[in-house]
From TrEMBL, chain A:
Primary localization: mitochondrion
One term under GO cellular component: mitochondrial large ribosomal subunit
Protein name stated in the entry: Large ribosomal subunit protein mL43
Superkingdom of origin: Eukaryota
Species this chain originates from: Sylvia atricapilla (blackcap)
Location in the cell: Mitochondrion
Automatic annotation (TrEMBL), chain B:
Keyword Transit peptide: yes
GO cellular component, one term: mitochondrial inner membrane
Protein name: Large ribosomal subunit protein mL44
Keywords: Endonuclease, Hydrolase, Mitochondrion, Nuclease, Ribonucleoprotein, Ribosomal protein, RNA-binding, Transit peptide
Predominant location category: mitochondrion
Origin: domain of life: Eukaryota
CDD domains, A to Z: DSRM_MRPL44
Protein family membership: Belongs to the ribonuclease III family. Mitochondrion-specific ribosomal protein mL44 subfamily.
SUPFAM superfamilies hit by this protein: dsRNA-binding domain-like (SSF54768), RNase III domain-like (SSF69065)
Length: 132, 294
């Protein structure tokens, strides 16, 4: 069955800074709907007072990776889109995929080795050996 | 603004701090996490059973020791937490019985020792603790040590299965066990899991049970006999009909490998068997079981 790999989202923002306006609008309008649509993600909203670091959305996944995304000067819809993108990701590292294909069954009829299509010793018909 | 050397010192302190439980870091709500867990696994749990399933014996002991140390009166602040050992036992028994039934239904030729080996592998510590780690059970368990040792994780996961058994009944728990344990067998070979010392003897026994004559090994192909790395293909023939063929470095190794290939074919555990059936069980089965039990 499908198990969503996102464990929890922590929304850290400041209630007075200017670049956290989108985050504050998201908390007022869209956070509850997001939480209802994704009941298996725990959403923590923690406002930190005073001029602190930039507002950030921290995502923790089941395999332990923690991903932080800046939400400074983003609108509420953009934050919703970002949150859904993080919710549908898995916690694997985002690195360049070397090949766009992968198979678990590289050969169907058996991989060729130098002895395929060579008759076995027992069935070779020589002048002395005879079939029974 | 903080000075450069102060920032460097604080960063070093942060990196050298000992690992802490997730429950001790900021932003943690136990009830919400447990609800999210039940939604993530798409199962309805009764939350008290689930909360007792996460409580371990070592946690209860450590809490009581701490209270005695602080000199609190026992009756005033009594711990009303129950253990998860009974739930773990029931979960283990159910999981083993269910998996044994699954394998006997899917591979009817496999002998009892093979079924037991597969079930032991699937309920072993490493596998169960690996599955539990990736389902975030290591954050939710209440345990004395951190990080939780694998036997604690295994016990907690089995207790979760026991709790599900009590909340939703055996059918849903069976589907849960099937969905989380059987994919761990993908890509694994039978004889990686089941250690067989004498495959030739086992093969002879199996063939006598099916009333086929004893196998005769013959060399089918050979390459590089006089080199350092020879390859021999030994085929096993019964009544001059081929049973299986296996490669090996020496003649003895090739014969053993051929016996293993023959056993895999007989038990139906080859690489090209049908994949496991994960479809939903039809409701007619429940009616059948009810009728058969009556």
């Amino acid at each position: 069955r499908y198990v969503r790999q996102l464990q929890r989202l922590q929304l850290l923002f400041s209630p007075t800074a200017a670049d956290a306006r989108g985050a504050r609008q998201f908390v007022e309008e869209a956070a509850q709907d997001f939480a209802r649509q994704h009941p298996d993600v725990v959403l923590y909203v923690s406002p930190r007072a005073g001029p602190g670091p930039a507002p950030v959305l921290r995502a923790e996944y089941l395999n332990g990776t923690v991903r932080e995304e800046l939400i400074a000067s983003k609108t509420s819809e953009e934050i919703v889109q970002l949150a859904t993108k993080l919710a549908n990701q898995s916690g694997l590292d985002i690195i360049r995929i070397r090949k766009p294909f992968h198979t678990d069954n590289p050969s169907i009829q058996g991989q060729w080795h130098p002895l395929t299509n060579k008759p076995s010793i027992l069935t070779i018909q020589g002048p002395r050996l005879q079939h029974q | 603004e903080k000075k450069r050397w102060l920032r460097a010192y604080l960063e070093l302190q942060r990196l050298q701090a000992p690992p802490q439980r997730r429950s001790e870091k900021p932003n943690w709500d136990y009830h919400a996490e447990i609800q999210a867990f039940s939604h993530r696994v798409q199962e309805n749990f009764s939350l008290d059973l689930l909360k007792t399933a996460f409580v371990n014996r070592c946690y209860i002991e450590s809490e009581e020791a701490r209270r005695r140390q602080l000199g609190l009166d026992k009756d005033a602040v009594a711990l009303q937490l129950q253990d998860n050992s009974e739930l773990a036992e029931r979960g283990l028994r159910f999981a083993r019985a269910y998996l044994a039934r699954c394998f006997e239904g899917a591979y009817p030729e496999l002998p009892a020792k093979g079924v037991e080996a597969l079930v032991n592998f699937l309920t072993s510590q490493e596998l169960v603790s690996y599955v539990a780690q990736n389902l975030s059970i290591q954050d939710l368990t209440l345990c004395r040590d951190f990080p939780a040792p694998p036997d604690v994780l295994q016990k907690t996961f089995l207790a979760v299965i026991g709790a599900l058994l009590d909340s939703s009944g055996p059918e849903r728990t069976g589907i849960f066990v099937r969905d989380f344990f059987i994919p761990q067998l993908i890509g694994k070979d039978l004889f990686e899991i089941w250690e067989v010392v004498n495959p030739m003897g086992l093969l002879v026994e199996e063939l006598t049970k099916r009333k086929i004559s004893a196998p005769e090994p013959r060399i089918t192909r050979q390459l590089g006999v006089s080199t350092v790395l020879p390859v021999y293909f030994v085929g096993l023939y019964c009544d001059k009909k081929i049973l299986a063929e296996g490669p090996g470095e020496t003649l003895l190794a090739a014969e053993e490998e051929a016996a293993r290939v023959a056993l895999r074919k007989l038990y139906g555990y080859t690489e090209n068997r049908r994949p496991w059936d994960y479809s939903k069980p039809k409701e007619g089965l429940a009616a059948e079981k009810a009728i058969s039990s009556n």
